[in-house]
Amino acid sequence: MIGIISALGSESVLLSSRLTDAREEKHAGALYRIGKIDGVEVVLVVCGVGKVNAAMHAQAMMDFYHPEAVLQSGVAGSLSPSLDIYDLVIGDKLSYHDMQDFVIERFGPLEKEYFSDAPLVKIAKETTNGVVGKIASGDLFVSDKETKRDIAERTQALCVEMEGAAVAHTAHLNEVPFLALRVISDSADVALEVAFDVFEKAAAKKSAEIVLAMLPKISRALSERKKK
Ligand code: ADE
Fold first, then answer.
1. Would 225 be classed as within a structural domain?
2. Residue among 151, 155, 209 at smallest CA distance from 183
3. How many distinct structural domains can be found in the chain?
């Protein structure tokens, strides 16, 4: 089974619409949809925004369903001049932009960076025209130039969102392979209404389409791995 975590309903709607043999269960306030997509067993959850919701539902998903891998699919703000609306970022590394380095070093268990599973990153690279790079996560909707520049400089990330590192962190501690995919919905330097509200739904759909395109390959790769 493959777990797919989205923060927003818009990021999960296409995936839900493709579910067959579907059933629903509620855990910690969120609806989990379990079924198959193109014959691949999946569990979907819309966790809500921010690191707490993300970590909580990543853990609940792993405890209740034991997925062989967890994917995070959704939208993000661009931190790079080379990334435009609807471009895809395949997150090979993730970090918190709102956690001080000395806290990470001194008070574990925390890592400066969390990693997507390398073979899953490779599949994403082969299946899509996405750019591989770092994703920064924090409890902040980034919508001004100053904050954007600061986060970009400190993290060297390609894009910013609010959940990825928390899911990657949880997957790491549970030793579950993880992959982050984000489609750019805004430039992270303008108000929510200016870009995010305009492009979010289409960007979210694109991210879900990418997941759909990758699912059979990911499922095959995971069963091969299990055999070894
Ligand atoms: N998700 C999508 N756009 C974002 C932004 N600008 N800041 C944080 N999370 C986002």
1. no
2. 209
3. 1
Count of H-run helices and E-run strands, the chain? 7, 10
pLDDT tens for 111-152 read 999 999 999 999 999 999 999 999 999 999 999 999 999 999
Q: How far apart are CA 107 and CA 124, in angstroms?
A: 34
> Is residue 47 in a domain?
yes
Q: How far is the CA of 142 from the centre of ligand 1 (A)?
A: 6
Q: Which domain holds residue 89?
A: 2-219
Instruction: Determine whether 11 is an active site residue.
Output: yes
Tell me how far the alpha carbon of residue 74 lies from the centroid of ligand 1, in angstroms. Answer: 10
Taking the centre of ligand 1 as the mean of its atom positions, its distance from the CA of residue 160, in whole angstroms, is 6
Q: Three-class SS of residue 179?
A: strand
Q: Is the CB of 77 under 6 A from ligand 1?
A: yes
Burial of 30 (0-12, 13-18, 19+ CB in 10 A): middle
The model scores a pTM over 0.85:
yes
Element spanning 3, H or E: strand 2-6
Is 41 a catalytic site residue?
no
- The CATH number of the domain holding residue 132 is 3.40.50.1580
